[in-house]
């Protein structure tokens, strides 16, 4: 069945005020192991992993190791893998080491164009190599993060991955996120958050933020106008393309074909 963002509107209306656990249960019931969590081991993503573990939802967890991550981030991945036995943590890697990439293409992240190329090589391309393995990617984007993410909905299209994107935390505020994490001591929290990092990426391009700054102020401070790596479709401006999903999934989601609208 052909599905577009427009054909997802009734589904988004249905789940606009649903809790994260309701959305995760729904996705797992419809898609099972054909859905995966996508996390960079920041606290919102590890919260989703904890909810899935607590609810007995056996997702794969996709983690892209760019080769430029803080040791605390890698330790968070290892601890989550050790303590969340229902989940399978899969580490995705770039084709080249950073040293090989730099020798061949130079130090890319020093310019806006180079940063886009570097993030594509080290983050987006490792994910696209598992294209076709999953019909749903679940991520932890929230509207309150602002910018392009202020438009994020529970369900959207990822044309490049030929899959649905699901955002169970779309409507969750930072205060609500804080409460949800504080309420469950089993949530694995990256230690960098306690060191002033509101969001976490590669160490050359991530810094702590002051209390008066936005959450993403610490990303690419050296590059004016850069806020995202591009691995999430909503950060790239979304897509007007369609994807094909199996009729059994469309029926479970209660979708109406794009061609029938």
List keywords for this structure.
alpha/beta, 261 residues, globular, Rossmann fold, six-stranded mixed β-sheet, 8 helices
- Largest sheet data: 6 strands, mixed
Return residue spans where pLDDT drops below 50 for at least 5 consecutive residues: none
Helix vs. strand class: alpha/beta
| Fraction in helix | 25-40%
* CATH class label: Alpha Beta
Q: If you compute it from the alpha carbons, what radius of gyration comes out, rounded to the nearest whole angstrom? A: 18 Å
The first-to-last residue Cα distance is 13 Å
Task: Label the CATH architecture.
Answer: 3-Layer(aba) Sandwich
Q: Can you give the mean pLDDT?
A: 93
Question: Using DSSP, what is the number of strands?
Answer: 8
- Topology order in helix (H) and strand (E) letters: EHHEHEHEHHEEEHEH
């Amino acid at each position: 069945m052909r599905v577009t963002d427009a054909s997802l509107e009734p589904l988004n209306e249905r789940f606009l005020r649903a809790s994260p656990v309701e959305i995760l249960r729904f996705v797992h019931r419809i898609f099972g192991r054909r859905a995966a969590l996508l996390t960079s081991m920041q606290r919102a993503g590890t919260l989703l992993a904890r909810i899935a573990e607590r609810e007995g939802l056996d997702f794969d967890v996709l983690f892209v190791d760019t080769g430029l991550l803080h040791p605390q981030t890698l330790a968070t991945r290892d601890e989550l893998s050790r303590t969340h036995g229902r989940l399978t943590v899969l580490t995705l890697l770039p084709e080249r080491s950073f040293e090989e990439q730099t020798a061949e293409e130079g130090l890319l992240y020093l310019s806006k164009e180079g940063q886009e190329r570097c993030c594509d090589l080290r983050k987006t391309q490792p994910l696209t190599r598992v294209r076709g393995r999953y019909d749903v990617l679940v991520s932890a984007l929230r509207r309150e993060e602002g910018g392009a993410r202020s438009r994020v909905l529970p369900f959207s299209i990822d044309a490049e991955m030929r899959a649905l994107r699901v955002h169970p935390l779309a409507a969750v505020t930072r205060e609500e996120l804080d409460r949800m994490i504080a309420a469950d001591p089993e949530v694995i929290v990256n230690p960098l958050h306690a060191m002033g990092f509101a969001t976490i990426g590669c160490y050359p391009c991530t810094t702590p933020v002051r209390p008066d700054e936005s959450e993403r102020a610490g990303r690419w401070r050296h590059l004016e106008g850069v806020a995202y790596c591009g691995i999430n479709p909503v950060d790239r401006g979304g897509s007007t393309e369609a994807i094909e999903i199996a009729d059994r999934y469309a029926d479970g989601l209660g979708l109406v074909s794009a061609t029938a609208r």
